[in-house]
Amino acid sequence: xxxxxxTQQNLMSKVIGGVVGGLVGGVVFGxxxxxxxxxxxxxxxxGSSSAVVGFLIHMVISAIIGAGFGFLxxxxxxxxxxxxxxxxxxxxxxxxxxxxxxxxxxxxxxxxPLLSHRQC
Length: 120
Prior knowledge:
Layout: H1 2-35, H2 39-43, H3 51-73, H4 80-109
Helix pairs in contact: 1-3
């Protein structure tokens, strides 16, 4: 019984660590996206064009992806080097999945207009 509680607490701390890491990375990437004017495109996922809404959506997605990393890979990351390597691989997969697979599917499934990140 005590081992089960310990395991659950350990898993929860890894997931929380993943969320924190996801949020830190999300802020950095969110700033880059804001500088490139891409946040309104992210807001388009929920039918908005607000950069603030886009940033909030981006941060929620970052937290969820970070939690996934904590759940799936924290046990494999026994030192900083392994953590960075697993994180880079996990991040690369999401870099492909997010904008190149999931976002177009979401736009198609909900018949959302495509927003250009550059206003002409």
